[in-house]
Amino acid sequence: MLSLCERVPRFLNFKSEISNLKLKGENISKQLHGWIESLKNSKIKGIKFLNNKEREKIAHDKQFEEFDAQMAEFRRQHLEMLEKRQQDTASARATAELAEDVLAASIRISGE
């Protein structure tokens, strides 16, 4: 319809507005197509099958997925903390050994 209006002499003054509307219409069409494909690929069989039990199952599955993601994040953070603690412990041991070596060397030097 907008393409037809674009060619009518009466609407020549509105060419840029018509072009903008056509672009918005194309974007909306693409979004709707994406939603349709998303629904086709979902577990929902159709509106007549979407009863309270099915809605509860979908909500439960969503909560489980969120919990699973939270647990994965918790495990990642915990692993980072353990690795940092291990590095800090190794660094502290190396510092203590260095301090012992310096102390032993200073005792030897002062004893000579």
Description:
The protein folds into 2 domains: 1-42; 48-112. The protein has helices spanning 2-7, 15-40, 52-111. The chain starts with a helix and ends with a helix. By secondary structure, the protein is mainly alpha-helical. The mean pLDDT is 86.
Radius of gyration: 34 Å
The largest sheet is: none
The DSSP helix count reads 3
Low-confidence stretches: none
**N to C succession of SSEs:** HHH
Strand content: under 5%
Got a strand count?
Answer: 0
Oligomer: single chain
Distance between the termini: 103 Å
Short structural summary:
With 112 residues, this protein is mostly helical. It is built from three helices and no strands. The protein starts with a helix and ends with a helix.
Which key phrases capture this entry?
112 residues, mainly alpha, 82% helix
Please describe the topology of this protein.
Blueprint: H1 2-7, H2 15-40, H3 52-111
